[in-house]
TrEMBL record:
Record-given protein name: 8-oxo-dGTP diphosphatase
EC annotation from Swiss-Prot or TrEMBL: 3.6.1.55
Record-listed Mg(2+) binding positions: G40, E60
Domain Nudix hydrolase: 6-133
Gene3D superfamilies: Aldolase class I (3.20.20.70), Nucleoside Triphosphate Pyrophosphohydrolase (3.90.79.10)
Alphabetical list of PROSITE patterns matching this protein: NUDIX, NUDIX_BOX
InterPro entries in the cross-refs: Aldolase_TIM (IPR013785), Mutator_MutT (IPR003561), MutT-like (IPR047127), MutY_C (IPR029119), Nudix_hydrolase (IPR020476), NUDIX_hydrolase-like_dom_sf (IPR015797), NUDIX_hydrolase_CS (IPR020084), NUDIX_hydrolase_dom (IPR000086)
Catalytic reactions of this protein: 8-oxo-GTP + H2O = 8-oxo-GMP + diphosphate + H(+); 8-oxo-dGTP + H2O = 8-oxo-dGMP + diphosphate + H(+)
Key words of the record: DNA damage, DNA repair, DNA replication, Hydrolase, Magnesium, Metal-binding, Mutator protein
One Pfam family from the record: TMP-TENI
Length: 312
């Protein structure tokens, strides 16, 4: 089996106007029968992935894909075959979904995806679906009640902030917790998810949505520090970091620096792509990036971009 070319399967994540996700149920007679999946199918010889996506959605669920972009690529080894699952986020489509091959199709609210049973290769897609394309890292507040910091936070919320990492290395634990609690209060009405760059114990004490581990903290752990559905994210710089993050059940990670102040320390897009091809979880590109770099991140296997200097 090791010498076989992976079966290249192209799948799509389609959202309706309410934000629900289209799922299809595999026939009981098929491999992985009676399990839910994101619609798609095998890439035919000579097809580009986008062509496969368009063809499969027309054949399976009678939807016409008009615009899509890469979401995540996952290599998974079943007992019978290695699969490359090439997943796209569908941004525009037309038509009404129905099971043209007799399969059941349903629209599922994103927060209920984890309650469904999927083939093993599909589970990493759920985190990619639940995460936005921009992961903003806060600047350091000058003090516990820094007016400029909270003014900027409110601007970010007004601009559609969805995922925030709160960093404040200069604050002691008491000051950090007080600041985090105020951040959570401001973010709660718009359901912004807040991860803390602190210990898992502090995450639990203030009721945040998860923890972001430094590279050092990650490598010192032998198991996942928080139970789902709380997020566990980590900073990674090497393929070995990524492998360790996956071994303890990290949900997503940041990888960089894509552009470091010293060019010789920059990871670069090619090396980023090489790492994301080996990753089985969403990866945000980080390090000297701006909004204009989003398409590069997607094209190189990234969930999106993360950062502070040019994003906060």
């Amino acid at each position: 089996m090791a010498n076989l070319t992976p079966l290249h399967v192209v799948a799509g994540v389609v959202r309706n106007a309410q934000g629900d996700i289209l799922l299809a149920r595999r026939h009981v007679t098929k491999e992985q029968g009676d399990l839910w999946e994101f619609p798609g199918g095998k890439r035919e010889q000579g097809e580009e992935p986008e062509q496969t996506l368009v063809r499969e959605f027309q054949e399976e669920v009678d939807i016409t894909i008009q615009r899509a972009r890469p979401l995540i690529r996952i290599r998974h080894t079943y007992t019978y075959r290695e699969v490359l699952l090439d997943v796209w986020s569908v941004e525009q489509f037309s038509g009404t979904a129905w099971g043209r091959e007799g399969q059941s199709v349903e629209w599922c609210a994103p927060h209920l995806l984890r309650l469904r049973t999927f083939p093993a290769a599909n589970y990493p897609i759920i985190n990619a679906v639940l995460l936005p394309a921009i992961y903003i890292i806060s600047t350091e507040p000058l003090k516990q009640n820094d007016p400029q910091f909270f003014y900027q936070l409110e601007k970010q919320i007004d601009n559609g902030l969805q995922l925030l990492q709160f960093r404040a290395g200069s604050l002691n634990d008491y000051e950090y917790c007080a600041c985090a609690e105020k951040i959570l209060t401001l973010c709660e009405p718009t359901k912004v998810q807040v991860l803390l760059h602190r210990t898992p114990q502090i995450v639990l004490s203030v009721g945040a949505h998860g923890v972001h581990l430094s590279q050092t903290a990650l490598l010192n752990l032998k198991e996942r520090p928080l139970k789902k559905p709380l997020w566990v994210a980590s900073s990674c710089h090497t393929l070995a970091d990524i492998q360790h993050a996956q071994s303890i059940g990290v949900d997503f990670l940041t990888l960089g620096a894509i552009r470091a102040p010293e060019p010789e320390n920059s990871l670069g897009w090619f090396n980023f792509f090489t790492c994301t091809e080996s990753a089985k979880i969403p990866v945000f590109a980080v390090g000297g990036l701006q909004y204009e770099d989003m398409s590069f991140a997607w094209a190189h296997g990234g969930q999106g971009i993360a950062g502070r200097q040019h994003l906060w």
